Amino acid sequence: MIRVVLADDQTLVRAGFRSILDGESDIEVVGEASDGERAVALARELRPDVVLMDVRMPGADGLEATRRITGDPRLDGVRVVILTTFDVDDYVYGALRAGASGFLVKDTEPMELLHGVRVVARGDALIAPAVTRRLIAEFAARRGRRPDPSPRLNALTEREREVMGLVGAGLSNDEIARRLVLSPATAKTHVSRIMTKLGVRDRAQVVVLAYESGMITPGWLA
Protein backbone atom coordinates (compact mmCIF):
# COMPACT_ATOMS: atom_id res chain seq x y z
CA MET A 1 0.00 0.00 0.00
CA ILE A 2 1.38 3.41 -1.02
CA ARG A 3 0.65 5.94 1.73
CA VAL A 4 0.14 9.53 0.58
CA VAL A 5 -0.17 12.90 2.32
CA LEU A 6 -1.88 15.73 0.42
CA ALA A 7 -0.69 19.28 1.09
CA ASP A 8 -2.67 22.07 -0.59
CA ASP A 9 -4.40 25.14 0.78
CA GLN A 10 -7.47 24.59 -1.43
CA THR A 11 -9.97 22.16 0.05
CA LEU A 12 -11.52 21.34 -3.34
CA VAL A 13 -8.12 20.51 -4.83
CA ARG A 14 -7.35 18.12 -1.98
CA ALA A 15 -10.79 16.53 -2.34
CA GLY A 16 -10.26 16.00 -6.06
CA PHE A 17 -6.88 14.36 -5.60
CA ARG A 18 -8.18 12.24 -2.72
CA SER A 19 -11.07 10.92 -4.81
CA ILE A 20 -8.66 9.82 -7.52
CA LEU A 21 -6.07 8.28 -5.22
CA ASP A 22 -8.42 6.56 -2.79
CA GLY A 23 -10.13 4.85 -5.70
CA GLU A 24 -7.04 2.69 -6.21
CA SER A 25 -6.51 -0.54 -4.31
CA ASP A 26 -2.78 0.10 -3.79
CA ILE A 27 -2.92 3.78 -2.72
CA GLU A 28 -4.22 5.31 0.51
CA VAL A 29 -4.43 8.99 1.47
CA VAL A 30 -3.41 9.01 5.13
CA GLY A 31 -3.42 12.75 5.84
CA GLU A 32 -4.18 16.24 4.53
CA ALA A 33 -2.52 19.59 5.22
CA SER A 34 -3.46 23.13 4.22
CA ASP A 35 -0.02 24.65 4.83
CA GLY A 36 3.64 23.73 4.86
CA GLU A 37 4.00 23.53 8.62
CA ARG A 38 1.23 20.96 8.85
CA ALA A 39 2.67 19.03 5.91
CA VAL A 40 6.02 18.68 7.68
CA ALA A 41 4.31 17.66 10.92
CA LEU A 42 2.27 14.98 9.12
CA ALA A 43 5.36 13.69 7.32
CA ARG A 44 7.12 13.26 10.67
CA GLU A 45 4.08 11.72 12.33
CA LEU A 46 2.84 9.40 9.56
CA ARG A 47 6.02 8.68 7.54
CA PRO A 48 4.11 8.44 4.23
CA ASP A 49 5.69 7.14 1.05
CA VAL A 50 4.76 10.24 -0.94
CA VAL A 51 3.81 13.84 -0.11
CA LEU A 52 1.96 15.68 -2.87
CA MET A 53 3.00 19.23 -2.05
CA ASP A 54 1.44 22.44 -3.37
CA VAL A 55 4.27 24.89 -4.01
CA ARG A 56 2.37 28.02 -2.94
CA MET A 57 0.70 27.91 0.46
CA PRO A 58 0.31 30.40 3.32
CA GLY A 59 2.89 30.41 6.08
CA ALA A 60 5.66 27.94 5.30
CA ASP A 61 5.28 27.33 1.57
CA GLY A 62 5.88 24.11 -0.31
CA LEU A 63 9.52 24.92 -0.98
CA GLU A 64 10.33 25.42 2.70
CA ALA A 65 8.33 22.33 3.65
CA THR A 66 10.20 20.30 1.03
CA ARG A 67 13.55 21.44 2.42
CA ARG A 68 12.54 20.41 5.92
CA ILE A 69 11.33 16.99 4.83
CA THR A 70 14.21 16.12 2.52
CA GLY A 71 16.73 17.49 5.01
CA ASP A 72 15.46 15.32 7.86
CA PRO A 73 17.38 12.00 7.95
CA ARG A 74 14.46 10.43 9.80
CA LEU A 75 12.32 11.01 6.70
CA ASP A 76 14.73 9.48 4.22
CA GLY A 77 12.01 7.23 2.80
CA VAL A 78 9.52 10.07 2.24
CA ARG A 79 9.35 11.33 -1.35
CA VAL A 80 7.99 14.78 -2.21
CA VAL A 81 6.19 15.57 -5.45
CA ILE A 82 5.55 19.25 -6.13
CA LEU A 83 2.12 20.33 -7.38
CA THR A 84 2.01 23.48 -9.46
CA THR A 85 -0.33 25.34 -11.81
CA PHE A 86 2.62 26.07 -14.12
CA ASP A 87 5.07 23.63 -15.69
CA VAL A 88 7.90 26.20 -15.63
CA ASP A 89 8.24 27.83 -12.25
CA ASP A 90 11.04 29.21 -10.07
CA TYR A 91 9.58 27.49 -7.03
CA VAL A 92 9.57 24.13 -8.80
CA TYR A 93 13.20 24.49 -9.82
CA GLY A 94 14.13 25.35 -6.25
CA ALA A 95 12.17 22.39 -4.95
CA LEU A 96 13.97 19.99 -7.29
CA ARG A 97 17.30 21.34 -6.08
CA ALA A 98 16.06 20.92 -2.50
CA GLY A 99 15.37 17.24 -3.02
CA ALA A 100 11.86 16.90 -4.45
CA SER A 101 11.44 13.81 -6.61
CA GLY A 102 9.68 15.68 -9.38
CA PHE A 103 6.58 17.70 -10.09
CA LEU A 104 3.08 17.44 -11.49
CA VAL A 105 0.94 20.13 -13.03
CA LYS A 106 -2.37 20.30 -11.16
CA ASP A 107 -4.48 19.76 -14.28
CA THR A 108 -2.66 16.52 -15.09
CA GLU A 109 -4.75 13.57 -16.22
CA PRO A 110 -5.79 11.13 -13.45
CA MET A 111 -3.78 8.29 -14.97
CA GLU A 112 -0.65 10.47 -15.03
CA LEU A 113 -1.18 11.35 -11.37
CA LEU A 114 -1.51 7.69 -10.41
CA HIS A 115 1.49 6.70 -12.50
CA GLY A 116 3.57 9.49 -10.98
CA VAL A 117 2.73 8.51 -7.41
CA ARG A 118 3.58 4.86 -8.09
CA VAL A 119 6.86 5.68 -9.84
CA VAL A 120 8.07 7.98 -7.07
CA ALA A 121 6.99 5.54 -4.37
CA ARG A 122 9.25 2.94 -6.00
CA GLY A 123 12.09 5.44 -5.89
CA ASP A 124 13.43 4.31 -9.25
CA ALA A 125 12.57 7.10 -11.70
CA LEU A 126 11.62 10.71 -12.19
CA ILE A 127 8.14 11.96 -12.89
CA ALA A 128 7.97 13.16 -16.49
CA PRO A 129 11.76 13.34 -16.94
CA ALA A 130 11.50 15.09 -20.31
CA VAL A 131 9.49 17.91 -18.74
CA THR A 132 11.84 18.09 -15.77
CA ARG A 133 14.83 18.37 -18.10
CA ARG A 134 13.12 21.17 -20.01
CA LEU A 135 12.42 22.98 -16.75
CA ILE A 136 16.05 22.77 -15.63
CA ALA A 137 17.44 23.74 -19.04
CA GLU A 138 15.09 26.71 -19.33
CA PHE A 139 15.99 28.14 -15.94
CA ALA A 140 19.68 27.59 -16.54
CA ALA A 141 19.32 29.53 -19.80
CA ARG A 142 17.13 32.24 -18.29
CA ARG A 143 19.62 32.93 -15.54
CA GLY A 144 22.58 32.83 -17.88
CA ARG A 145 24.36 30.48 -15.53
CA ARG A 146 27.78 29.19 -16.49
CA PRO A 147 28.55 25.53 -15.75
CA ASP A 148 29.73 25.12 -12.18
CA PRO A 149 31.52 21.76 -11.84
CA SER A 150 30.99 20.35 -8.39
CA PRO A 151 34.01 18.94 -6.54
CA ARG A 152 31.77 15.99 -5.69
CA LEU A 153 32.02 14.86 -9.32
CA ASN A 154 35.70 14.08 -8.79
CA ALA A 155 34.69 11.03 -6.78
CA LEU A 156 33.00 9.45 -9.81
CA THR A 157 34.68 6.94 -12.08
CA GLU A 158 34.59 7.47 -15.85
CA ARG A 159 31.80 4.90 -16.16
CA GLU A 160 29.82 6.59 -13.41
CA ARG A 161 30.18 9.94 -15.18
CA GLU A 162 28.90 8.32 -18.34
CA VAL A 163 25.92 6.87 -16.48
CA MET A 164 25.26 10.20 -14.74
CA GLY A 165 25.11 11.94 -18.10
CA LEU A 166 22.51 9.47 -19.30
CA VAL A 167 20.49 9.92 -16.10
CA GLY A 168 20.64 13.66 -16.74
CA ALA A 169 19.38 13.06 -20.26
CA GLY A 170 16.31 11.40 -18.78
CA LEU A 171 17.09 7.75 -19.53
CA SER A 172 15.70 5.04 -17.29
CA ASN A 173 17.89 2.29 -15.85
CA ASP A 174 16.73 -0.10 -18.58
CA GLU A 175 17.53 2.46 -21.30
CA ILE A 176 20.94 3.12 -19.78
CA ALA A 177 21.60 -0.62 -19.70
CA ARG A 178 20.74 -0.96 -23.38
CA ARG A 179 22.81 2.08 -24.37
CA LEU A 180 25.92 0.89 -22.50
CA VAL A 181 25.38 -2.85 -23.07
CA LEU A 182 24.98 -3.57 -19.36
CA SER A 183 22.51 -5.58 -17.36
CA PRO A 184 19.66 -3.53 -15.82
CA ALA A 185 20.92 -4.58 -12.38
CA THR A 186 24.39 -3.20 -13.14
CA ALA A 187 22.92 0.07 -14.41
CA LYS A 188 20.85 0.37 -11.24
CA THR A 189 23.94 -0.29 -9.12
CA HIS A 190 25.85 2.46 -10.93
CA VAL A 191 23.01 4.93 -10.35
CA SER A 192 22.84 4.02 -6.65
CA ARG A 193 26.60 4.50 -6.26
CA ILE A 194 26.42 7.85 -8.03
CA MET A 195 23.72 9.09 -5.66
CA THR A 196 25.73 7.88 -2.66
CA LYS A 197 28.95 9.56 -3.83
CA LEU A 198 27.16 12.81 -4.66
CA GLY A 199 25.28 12.79 -1.37
CA VAL A 200 21.85 13.12 -3.01
CA ARG A 201 18.66 11.28 -2.15
CA ASP A 202 16.97 11.25 -5.52
CA ARG A 203 17.52 11.00 -9.28
CA ALA A 204 16.02 14.46 -9.70
CA GLN A 205 19.02 15.95 -7.91
CA VAL A 206 21.34 13.96 -10.19
CA VAL A 207 19.63 15.59 -13.19
CA VAL A 208 20.01 19.06 -11.65
CA LEU A 209 23.72 18.48 -10.94
CA ALA A 210 24.27 17.12 -14.46
CA TYR A 211 22.93 20.36 -15.93
CA GLU A 212 24.50 22.78 -13.48
CA SER A 213 27.93 21.16 -13.76
CA GLY A 214 27.86 21.31 -17.55
CA MET A 215 27.83 17.53 -17.91
CA ILE A 216 24.60 17.92 -19.87
CA THR A 217 24.70 20.73 -22.40
CA PRO A 218 21.35 22.28 -23.26
CA GLY A 219 20.93 24.30 -26.44
CA TRP A 220 21.87 27.58 -24.77
CA LEU A 221 25.48 26.39 -24.46
CA ALA A 222 25.79 25.24 -28.05
- Do you know the CATH architecture of the largest domain? 3-Layer(aba) Sandwich
Instruction: Tell me the number of strands.
Output: 5
Number of domains: 2
Judged by helices, strands and strand pairing, the structural class is: alpha/beta
Largest sheet: 5 strands, parallel
- Provide the CATH top-level class of the largest domain: Alpha Beta
Given as residue ranges, the uncertain stretches (5+ residues, pLDDT < 50) are: none
Write the layout of secondary structure elements.
Elements (H helix, E strand, L loop, with lengths): L1 E6 L3 H11 L5 E7 L2 H11 L3 E5 L7 H9 L8 E6 L5 H9 L3 E4 L4 H13 L6 H15 L14 H11 L4 H8 L3 H15 L4 H10 L10
Parallel strand pairs: 1-2, 1-3, 3-4, 4-5
Helix pairs in contact: 2-3, 3-4, 6-10, 7-9, 7-10, 8-9
In short:
50% of the residues lie in helices and 13% in strands. It is of the alpha/beta class. The protein folds into 2 domains: 1-125, Rossmann fold, CATH 3.40.50; 143-211, Winged helix-like DNA-binding domain superfamily/Winged helix DNA-binding domain (Arc Repressor Mutant, subunit A, Orthogonal Bundle), CATH 1.10.10.10.
Word description of this protein:
With 222 residues, the chain is an alpha/beta fold. It folds into two domains: 1-125, Response regulator (Rossmann fold, 3-Layer(aba) Sandwich), CATH 3.40.50; 143-211, Arc Repressor Mutant, subunit A (Orthogonal Bundle), CATH 1.10.10.10. 50% of the residues lie in helices and 13% in strands. It is built from ten helices and five strands, in the order E-H-E-H-E-H-E-H-E-H-H-H-H-H-H. It has helices at residues 11-21, 36-46, 62-70, 90-98, 110-122, 129-143, 158-168, 173-180, 184-198, 203-212, and strands at 2-7, 27-33, 50-54, 79-84, 102-105. A five-stranded parallel beta sheet has the order 2-1-3-4-5, with helices on both faces. The N and C termini lie far apart (46 Å).
